[in-house]
Write a structure and sequence with these properties.
Blueprint lengths: L15 H9 L15 H5 L10 H12 L3 E2 L15 E4 L25 H5 L5 H19 L7 H16 L16 H4 L4 H10 L21 H12 L7 E10 L8 E2 L7 E10 L4 E6 L14 H9 L8 E4 L6 H9 L3 E5 L20 E6 L5 E6 L3 E6 L8 E7 L4 E7 L1 H9 L2 H11 L9 H27 L10 H13 L12 H10 L17 H4 L7 E3 L6 E2 L8 E2 L1 E3 L4 E2 L8 H6 L5
Parallel strand pairs: 3-7, 7-8
Antiparallel strand pairs: 1-2, 2-9, 3-5, 4-5, 5-6, 8-11, 9-10, 10-11, 12-13, 14-17, 15-16, 17-18
């Protein structure tokens, strides 16, 4: 084609006549766009030329600004490789079907119900106590030059004392051993100085020969405990259910480089732990925050989304995950949707700047929903006491439900319209809060300067709550009544009692059996009480453990009623360990029947 004469350097701009002449003489196809690098027009000019925008382009921009649908700009005509233009507009969003809660009464083959200690031993088994005893002795040698000579049996009692201290709280630690008000279960099991010595030297790793990842892993001193508890949590069954992700605090006020301050938390200072739970509060996975060294893979979307992607990696497709505004972003919901996981969470307004939310004053109960053009993500705004903004891939405004709210003007409760996504969020988001609430009821409370001890005891409490929730599920599946199911206090006390009853040595053999009998014969019997009060029936772990259940005959004036459930005779023979009176005669042996576990 014939090009017009080149513009002189002194003019600087093309005039209208030259532009029209250039356009009329042009024979370039319409398929070329401004983005093509091989355009022959560009190679002809030696200097860039500034062209003023046409009036039609300005009008087009004005129309786009006034349009109700907000578009994501995409320059040039669309081709096969151009990404689809996404925009938001007010329209109806079809809610996806949500999972139905499990009905434990209809389980065909329920799992067998176990004792509280057996549930707890899934997290803290004999291998853990063997490791802790070995490393504690090694640490005491490094620090003091001599070993404290602890063993796994003694550490089991140490952990049992900590569990019991969470249930029965004294203002000061020394009061558990103070004469006159001491707690006999603790004072008779271990002395105060021995307890403090074990707490001072408690370790689970070799501090001399550090592991290879000690520089990158700030939690290497407690990593065996974290890994042990996490491995058991990862083995718990997962289905297409509802899950929640939130922050959990490991309270600690001492010196630690991992210490965080999280505003509006009941315990705002401590180590931060990101937790994945079911909607009922059962912990399935967690990750303790270590700053930049936290093992997170996808950090491109930010810290919050990276935590979500790390924790949902063990969930199956079709799961529904709920989280708060600390984690929620639109790109995160897009990635979760591509992985087959539905996400819902409150969202900050500065993270959805492409959406023009309602600027007018909204009345209580009013709501709007904005659906993306691909209909994969919906943003819902709802006016309660304040405006609530939520983003989701599975639920929007419809179907609207009703909730009760207090009206200051009418001074009574009124029915307020509520979007479906808000109701779903309130039902399923509180899993981590339930776990925290249960842990706070009977948390091991005493103060210490060692952050490692605080972390170990925190996961001891977490394992106890998780064990209790698994016990409740199995009890409901076996159609136990609410009266037969132990609450958390009784469950924790049963574990503490079983730990405190741990024998100081291994099972006695035939060789040293006679020595044990001599010790019993030479022992001094306790003086009888003036007013007899029957001792409570021991827990199943202590009753059926098969250790040191020696019969003794008390020198008492009147016989006691046998404590076996099916016997009402009187006897003076007592089990020294269980502290209950049992018959032992030629005709009937209640002593044996009491200590042998019946077959189910």
């Amino acid at each position: 084609m014939d090009l017009p004469p080149r513009v002189g350097h002194t003019e600087g701009f093309l005039n209208d006549d030259l532009i029209l002449e250039f356009l009329n003489n042009s024979d370039i196809d319409e398929q070329f766009s401004d983005d093509d690098d091989d355009d022959p027009m560009i190679s002809t000019y030696e200097h860039p030329v500034e062209v003023e925008p046409l009036e039609s382009e300005a009008d087009e921009q004005e129309e786009e600004t006034n349009c109700t649908a907000i578009e994501t700009p995409s320059p040039g005509p669309r081709t096969d490789t151009t990404p689809r233009r996404l925009f938001w507009k007010k329209k109806y969003f079809q809610e996806k079907p949500h999972p139905v809660p499990i009905d434990y009464t209809n389980i065909q083959n329920p799992p067998s119900e176990r004792t509280p200690l057996q549930y707890h031993e899934d997290y803290f088994d004999d291998d853990f106590f063997n490791l802790a005893a070995e490393k504690t002795n090694m640490y005491s040698v490094v620090k003091t030059g001599k070993s404290i000579n602890t063993n796994p049996q003694e550490l089991k009692k140490f952990f049992g004392i900590n569990l019991l201290m969470g249930c029965i709280r004294y203002p000061r630690l020394s009061m558990y051993w103070q004469k006159g008000i001491q707690l006999n279960l603790i004072s008779e099991c271990m002395s105060r100085d021995r307890f403090l010595l074990l707490r001072k030297h408690l370790h689970v790793v070799d501090t001399v020969n550090k592991p290879n990842d000690a520089d990158s892993n700030a939690l290497w001193k407690v990593q065996p405990v974290i890994q042990k508890v996490r491995d058991v949590c990862l083995q718990l069954p997962r289905g297409n259910g509802s899950y929640s992700i939130d922050e959990q605090m490991i309270p600690f006020l001492g010196r630690c480089k991992l210490k965080q301050y999280v505003k509006n938390k009941p315990r705002p200072v401590g180590l931060k732990n990101f937790v994945l739970t079911t909607s009922k509060g059962l912990v399935l996975d967690f990750e303790v925050y270590q700053g930049q060294s936290t093992p997170l893979v996808n950090r491109e979307l930010g810290l919050g989304p990276a935590v979500i992607m790390r924790l949902v990696s063990s969930l199956p497709q079709g799961s529904f995950v709920y989280f708060d505004r600390y984690f929620t972003t639109i790109p995160l919901l897009q990635v979760l949707s591509e992985k087959g996981i539905e996400g819902t969470g409150t969202v900050m307004k500065n993270r959805i700047r492409d959406i023009e939310l309602s600027q007018k004053k909204m009345n209580r109960g009013e709501s709007n929903e904005y659906v993306r053009s691909d209909e994969k993500i919906v943003v819902t705004e709802w006016m309660d006491n304040q405006k609530v903004v939520m983003a989701s891939t599975c639920a929007g405004k419809h179907p609207e439900l009703h909730v009760r709210r207090w009206s200051k003007a009418e001074k009574r409760h009124v029915e307020v319209d509520c979007p479906s996504v808000v109701c779903k969020y309130n039902q399923c988001m509180g899993g981590v809060d339930i776990c925290n609430q249960q842990m706070e009821c009977y948390r091991t409370w005493f103060r210490t300067r060692k952050w490692t001890v605080k972390v170990i005891l925190h996961f001891l409490d977490l394992a106890t709550v998780n064990s209790w929730m698994l016990y409740r599920e199995d009890a409901l599946a076996n159609k136990r009544s609410n009266r037969e199911i132990k609450d958390l206090l009784k469950f924790r006390m049963s574990i503490a009692e079983a730990r405190l009853a741990t024998p100081a040595r291994k099972r006695r053999t035939e060789d040293d059996g006679n020595r044990g009998i001599e010790e019993v014969e030479n022992g001094m019997p306790e003086p009888p009480k003036k007013i007899y009060t029957p001792s409570p029936i021991p827990g199943v772990d202590k009753r059926y453990d098969g250790y040191d259940h020696w019969p003794v005959v008390d020198d008492i004036h009147s016989s006691r009623i046998c404590r076996l459930e099916s016997c009402c005779k009187r006897t003076k023979l007592r089990c020294e360990k269980c502290d209950v009176y049992l018959c032992l005669s030629k005709d009937k042996c209640c002593f044996k029947l009491f200590h042998v576990k019946p077959r189910s």
